[in-house]
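Tokenise the fold.
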Amino acid sequence: MAETDPRSRRVVVPGVRWLRFPRRLEAEYREYQNLEAVDSFRVNAFYILILYMLLLSGIYALAPDAVRGLWLGAYIWVGIIVLAAGILAQFRALDRYFPIYTGLGSFLAVALSMAIPGFLDEPGSIQLANVSVIYALVIVYAMVGLRFPVAVLACWGGGLLGWLIAERFGRGIDWQMAHRTYTGISLLGMFLCYTEEVRGRLLFFNQRQLQRQQHRTQALAERLHRLSREDSLTSLANRRFFDEALDREWRRCQREQQPLTVMLVDVDRFKAYNDHYGHLQGDECLRTLADELRRYSRRGGDLVARFGGEEFVLLYPGVDETEAVRLASRLCRSVRALGLPHVQNAAVGEVTISVGVAVTRPAESGSALQLLDAADRALYQAKQGGRDSWRLYEPPPPVRLVHDSGVSKDD
């Protein structure tokens, strides 16, 4: 069987032609359509009221003197309905009830417009009255913003009620005239309203698909961004993220004249651990240590990162020497308390760490790399001193220069 050309595939939008999406999507569309309609109606109500006043004044001027009072008394209620709906639309707390009060208002306006011709005798007045029916239908279908089923129910239901009123209390409806106005405009209005809702549903569906795609793209970008800064084994920050944080905190502590502490942590005799227990167990050991070290970065600005191999690094802005040595001591004790077996670590038989600590107040003459180098030197001293311990870096004493005469400058 020949494969279908992907370019020939079309996106199928469920339920558009039948004006009903699947249940969850339909609920989202109705909420979206209702908000769009009520925002539009807040403005359109003003124009609808102007059109109504123009219609009323025109009919009033053309109507015979004998029925002018009847015209004014009947059509004033249509204006009241429009005005009431426009006022209700200004209250955002009532937005959810927009289809109810505008649908009911449209129903009553169409019923009133349809019934009035049934109470008139003079042919010219009847023709003018049927013009008002056209206005009412056009406004309901095109300007109110009702969904297609609601608009159809309001127009046809209102027309039926108006016909019953005219037949029961008036002289009946001139169906030849009614078909040319009410029936024809209703069918045309239905077609236009249906077409507009189909277009609106397609627009909504496309916008929703675009938003979903944007969310997916954003989530993927965030995930890639996180992965580029996260160590895949331990889920700690990686070396790249640490370098950026160190540079950032160095400049901040320099501005605020605060101390900055860096600790380098190395797992004692980890190569022997891997050789004895295997690399998979070695990875599990590093993950366990990472979880423990993560407990030591609770403040904003603190950072624990994997430095490389079996080395970790901790960054503490605003921490001075006294607090730094206390943290380093606690760190060594907490790792020993894990009780991870390490038969190749002959001194204790458990996994231990060595910690190098460096503290400085960033100055213009120094650099973040110098602080990191100082922590590395302190770590070397801790390992040379027997491991399972920490060392605070202390700069070497200044070199004293001696003159040829054998007397130093300080003498």
Q: What stands out?
A: Residues 14-213 form one domain.
